[in-house]
Amino acid sequence: MEAPDVGAQPETTAAAVGDHEAMDMVAEDNMEPNPSQVLAYSETYSEYDERELLLLQRTKETVQMIARDEVNDAIAEVFKGVQSTGIAEADYQRQCEKFHDMLIDHYRRTQSTVSVSPIWDGHDKPIHTVFVRPNLNYITIENDGSRRKTDNKVLQYKDLVYKENKLIKRVIIQGEPGMGKTTLLSKFVLDWCEAASPESQEYRANFSDLETLKGFKFLFHLSLRDSPETSEVVKMIKTQLIDKMYADEDERKQVYTLLQHILKTDKCILCMDGLNEWTTDLNNDPFPIIATCHKQCVALITTRPWTMVDKRIKDSGIDLLIEVSGIMDKEQLVIFIIKSRQTNTSKSHKRFMSYVKEHKLEHFLASPLLLTLLVSVWINSQHFSGSLCEMNCILLDNLFRKATKHEGKFSHAQFLCLKGTNYIYPRVEMLNSLAKLAFECTFSSGKSLVFSKEKVLESLSPEHLKFSLQAGILSERYISSLRSEFSFLHETMQEFLAAFHIAQSNGISISSILGTIRHVLEICQVFMYLCGLDIEKANTLLDSAVHDLKGDISHGLSAYVNGRTNCVFL
């Protein structure tokens, strides 16, 4: 037997088997799978697809459920929002009505009366019993910046708040001291109250178109003097109105929040009295700040003419400029004041008018303040001697009171007309400075009723000038962007103060006085006042004047002076 042949065969078989497995593996890639394999694979994939489909189905159902819940929640929120919006709107309207009614009640308590005696502030009467319609004239701003008073008058409320059916944003109402600006604004407030909530069928409005005011849902009346350190109107409303109308702090906050929305959405009138008394230095804005978003607000601002000289005030910042220049019916006001001051008819307005004509006091009737003052001193005749000098001292004393709180009396007054005053003595140097200015403007280079700031500062210090403007003794009026002019409250006040300066000064030459005038009759009023202050100096002036006159003029002047001197006494 040959051993090698038998032992070699198994090795060969093993190698062949390995090659066969390798070939089978290759065959699996190159040959189509058999049915049993396809079935196995299909079952495996089917199970996978079912699981995947089940997962997808469950995911879809979950998403649908979540979406359905979210949609339902969203719909519920919408309905809830609609419902809450309705409730909020209704609640807002209720809050507005409550605030609106509270304002009207507040105004009818605080704005319904006016003083009928400049001498005694506490003596007041309902405005409707003494109010006489003022003259309101339009002022045009020329191309060169100057301002010219026209003869056109404001005759309706519509003319004050609308222009070409559009709201006027800022209306300036200027007027000299005592012309009734504050009373006019108070009457405006009361007219709005009557339009918004009628109280009497017999109510007399300032203008006939009361329905115009009814179109404004709210009106806010502010005294700028009472908010000297506040620049924003909304904050002024809080301190001057809300804090006074509501006691609870939480309620104040709620109403203040309500106010923000009102000013943004509703038509409102903002009445601001006394721009000349507003002393804030918080910003460079010459007017109280009204937020830009308060587009439905109309601002009515009263002031004195000198305030409008402020260089910060641009022409474009004045939408409408109005001037208060006295009242339409002076005699009617006399009737009202006399009726309000006495319980009987012992003193009639006819007797008063005769008194005015007899003493040539018609010029006092141009201003409601002076008219009321004159009626007061006439009724209280025991306190008024009847001299023009005393009348002027009474007036000056009341004007001084507006700018100072210090009181004091003359123990040994140089002039008797000063004896009854209460506010001049502590600031007597002010009176002397004003008298010097009046003299310089009357006699230095011919009589001048208007004068420059440079002329004023020759006699008054800056402090004295500020005091005089605050008191209303002097007025500053805007002429152009570079110039303003000054004047006394009235020509007669200037003449009285000029005479006062002559009477108290020893170094004034009578000849120098006469040398500055064209005719001696030009200083007739000054001479009359001088007769009441210092008769000796008046006689010296008269002698010098008569010496210069000729023929009939000399005799006529002497007769006139002698006749007038008998009417002037201390």
pLDDT < 50 stretches: 1-30, 564-570
Terminal CA distance: 181 Å
Quick check: average pLDDT? 81
Total number of strands: 13
What does the largest sheet look like? 7 strands, mixed
Oligomerization: single chain
Structural category is: alpha/beta
Helix tally? 20
Structure described in brief:
With 570 residues, the chain is of the alpha/beta class. The chain has 20 helices and 13 strands.
Keywords:
single chain; 570 residues; alpha/beta; 20 helices; 53% helix; 12% strand
Can you put this structure into words, describing what you see?
With 570 residues, this protein is of the alpha/beta class. Among the domains are: 133-327, 3-Layer(aba) Sandwich (Rossmann fold); 385-565, no CATH class. Helix content is 53%, strand content 12%. α16 crosses α18 and α19 runs antiparallel to α20 (551-565). The longest helix has 76 residues, at 35-110. The protein is elongated. The model is unreliable at 1-30 and 564-570 (pLDDT under 50).
Task: Summarize the helices and strands and which ones pair or pack.
Blueprint: H1 3-30, H2 35-110, E1 113-115, E2 124-126, H3 127-130, E3 134-141, E4 147-153, H4 158-161, E5 162-163, E6 166-167, E7 170-174, H5 181-196, H6 210-214, E8 218-223, H7 233-245, H8 249-265, E9 268-273, E10 297-303, E11 320-327, H9 330-341, H10 349-358, H11 368-379, H12 388-403, H13 428-443, H14 453-457, H15 462-471, E12 474-478, E13 484-488, H16 491-504, H17 510-514, H18 524-533, H19 535-548, H20 551-565
Parallel strand pairs: 7-10, 7-11, 8-9, 9-10
Antiparallel strand pairs: 1-2, 3-4, 3-11, 5-6, 12-13
